[in-house]
């Protein structure tokens, strides 16, 4: 069973999170940032993941610590739930439209953390989420999960649409990459690290 629970408590955030890799697409709980909650919901629905979250953050400061720390904990839970990475497709790619916007994601569950992120937004924030924190969220996830992650908003006008298409592309690529194949580790080295 590919499941994990992670707790992380700092002076800035207190997070308890569980991740079921083979769930029903159910997201419960809140990080306290409305738009990021909406994106977590999209991640679960489009990836077929179940995530349960209990979180408090210093949102009176701003959204930075909460968004980044959530990415850290999600990445840790993903890595723990996936385990040794054997018997999975390893790679995933998706290009997702949302109205006028089109976003792309390609990833490798390689054990080597890397992020390439190309996206520009017209506004400083979407709801109460600073647009600059979307990149920080994905960087935190990629480095804790040990994945190589390439993401790009190809075009669009509405910031909400661009970001949501990006999260949905990430969800579909992640689902493809973790799909079980019944084979061994997909690496000529015999290990993913």
From TrEMBL:
EC number, UniProt record: 4.2.1.19
Transmembrane as UniProt keyword: no
One GO process term, biological-process aspect: L-histidine biosynthetic process
One cellular component term from this protein's GO annotations in UniProt: cytoplasm
Top class in the EC scheme: lyase
Subcellular location, record wording: Cytoplasm
SUPFAM superfamilies linked: Ribosomal protein S5 domain 2-like
Record's keyword terms, sorted: Amino-acid biosynthesis, Cytoplasm, Histidine biosynthesis, Lyase
Principal localisation: cytoplasm
Annotated catalysed reactions: D-erythro-1-(imidazol-4-yl)glycerol 3-phosphate = 3-(imidazol-4-yl)-2-oxopropyl phosphate + H2O
Spans traversing the lipid bilayer: none
Domain of life: Bacteria
Pathway: Amino-acid biosynthesis; L-histidine biosynthesis; L-histidine from 5-phospho-alpha-D-ribose 1-diphosphate: step 6/9
GO molecular function, one term: imidazoleglycerol-phosphate dehydratase activity
Record-linked InterPro entries: IGPD_sf (IPR038494), ImidazoleglycerolP_deHydtase (IPR000807), ImidazoleglycerP_deHydtase_CS (IPR020565), Ribosomal_Su5_D2-typ_SF (IPR020568)
UniProt KW Cytoplasm keyword: yes
UniProt record similarity statement: Belongs to the imidazoleglycerol-phosphate dehydratase family.
Listed name of the protein: Imidazoleglycerol-phosphate dehydratase
Source species of the chain: Blautia argi
Gene: hisB
